[in-house]
Amino acid sequence: MSVTLYDVEALPGTAAASQRARLLVVDDQPINIRALHEVFSADHDVFMATNGAQALAFCRQTPPDLVLLDVVMPDMSGLEVCRALKADAQTESIPVIFVTSLDDPAEEAACWDAGGVDFITKPINALTVRNRVRAHLTLKLQSDLLRRMAWVDGLTGVANRRQFDERLEREWQRCRRAGQPLSASIVDIDHFKAYNDTYGHLAGDDCLRQVAAAIEGSLARAGDLVARTGGEEFTCLLPEIDLDGALTVVENVERAVRALGIVHAGSELGVVTVSIGVASARADGESTIAGLLTQADNGLYRAKRAGRARVCAADGDADASGA
Ligand SMILES: Nc1nc2c(ncn2[C@@H]2O[C@H](COP(=O)(O)OP(=O)(O)OP(=O)(O)O)[C@@H](O)[C@H]2O)c(=O)[nH]1
Prior knowledge:
elongated
């Protein structure tokens, strides 16, 4: 294999495969990149960067599973790159193994301090490097799995309440700083107890999965979030959108669920439907997160009282009937 390109890109012969890990090798010397590529290209997708700025841009855009990072580089040292990765929430969990030719205890200490998980000396020993990388990749994949289990609802695959609470707080602060509204809506499946009683719990679970996917598919913006916040209840976060905009979005959600056409003999329309409460607030000192959710809940209560399969805001002047 010959390495002729030294920008950030997949090296030849490293076709993507989901089981393969993505390794980023950062070194200003092509010969060192080539040596590591030869060790890993059979088992992993190897990407390369020849300076710190390239490496950071790559990690932010498409985070690799592990970074092999040269310590001494012109412009930005490996230590600076590692500190920048660890300071950014998007990239902090990417393990960094330092690769260096220096044999200096002070430098080794600096690598640990910067946040590296391991330290390899040049010239590299292929067996040692392969085994160290394998050990760190195993840990990384396990921690990814645990993180996913902690943040995602196991049944439907959408965000769980923990993720919702964390995002709500973050979006509330972000919208406050930007002087933008934050909208929330609570989506509740109608007569779901009757659905379970008639069709069984497994069918109920399948219905929940389909409804979750329909809600998710109706939210178009990157910052939107849907979370399963109760047994048959989902909450949507719609940042930087006012009540009118939020009503339009959740009316689409209501229609999308109805259009699934999941037969439900015990429902008014003969198919599974949802009732939705929606509210919007500005984090301007008077409003609170709890107040926003209470308003959305009041809207949901109104939608149920008004006959279900519809969207209601809390204040009563925005009521979009779907039935
Ligand atoms: N299959 C399944 N059912 C669930 C799950 N979580 C909650 N439920 C059921 O969801 C039902 C919710 O029923 P209720 O709160 O009485 O509400 P409802 O029957 O939907 O009535 P309305 O909301 O007034 O339209 C209960 O029967 C729960 O057992 C789940 O994970 N899977």
